[in-house]
Specification:
The chain is of the alpha+beta class. It has one domain (21-155): Alpha-D-Glucose-1,6-Bisphosphate, Chain A, domain 4 (2-Layer Sandwich), CATH 3.30.530. It has helices at 2-19, 33-41, 43-49, 133-155, and strands spanning 21-29, 54-57, 64-69, 72-83, 87-94, 106-115, 118-128. The chain has a seven-stranded antiparallel sheet with strand order 1-7-6-5-4-3-2. A hairpin with a 3-residue loop joins strand 4 (72-83) and strand 5 (87-94). Helix 2 (33-41) packs across helix 3 (43-49). The longest helix has 23 residues, at 133-155.
């Protein structure tokens, strides 16, 4: 009886995972872990490649991360995990976007993996229940942001003119 019960639990869990909507992208970057970590966590570097300026960047669990301009926040979240040069996870919610107002909060995870002298940055934006407005916006934004980050770290320049 127990094996059937556990098999059903596993199958139910697999079904739930299959229905999760998420965005994942891997980028190979020729740089050091320290430089990549700084690019993910230091406001002066983030502002060079990200689509909007960073207002606050926490450095430990529970602290705030937010993007926008003076007096207006566009993206807000909370640091959920901060493992230096390994992993950064934060919650994510569009704060100033009327079309995304009813969308639930999601989660962004940056993981740094070293392989054959290269670093792999794995970005996972998860927690979507559907392909809502937030999902549509981030699937257009992340490829540009990650390409801009890679270009900055490898050439010292960005994709912006």
């Amino acid at each position: 009886m127990k094996p059937l019960f556990f098999t059903l639990l596993i199958l139910m869990g697999a079904g739930l995972m299959a229905n999760e909507v998420k965005f994942e992208q891997m980028v190979y970057i020729k740089t050091t872990k320290a430089k990549l970590w700084n690019a993910l966590t230091q406001p002066e570097t983030i502002n060079k490649y990200y689509m909007c300026p960073i207002l606050k960047m926490g450095s430990k669990k529970g602290e705030i991360i937010s993007y926008g301009v003076e007096g207006q926040t566009f993206i807000e979240g909370e640091i959920l995990e901060f493992k230096k040069q390994e992993k950064l996870t934060h919650s994510f919610r569009f704060a100033g976007k009327p079309k995304a107002k009813g969308d639930q909060g999601t989660m962004v995870t940056y993981e740094i993996v070293e392989q054959q002298g290269l670093l792999i940055l794995i970005l996972t934006h998860s927690g979507f229940r559907a392909k809502n407005q937030t999902y549509k916006d981030i699937t257009g934004g992340w490829p540009y942001i990650l390409s801009n980050l890679k270009t900055l770290l490898e050439t010292g320049k960005t994709l912006r003119k």
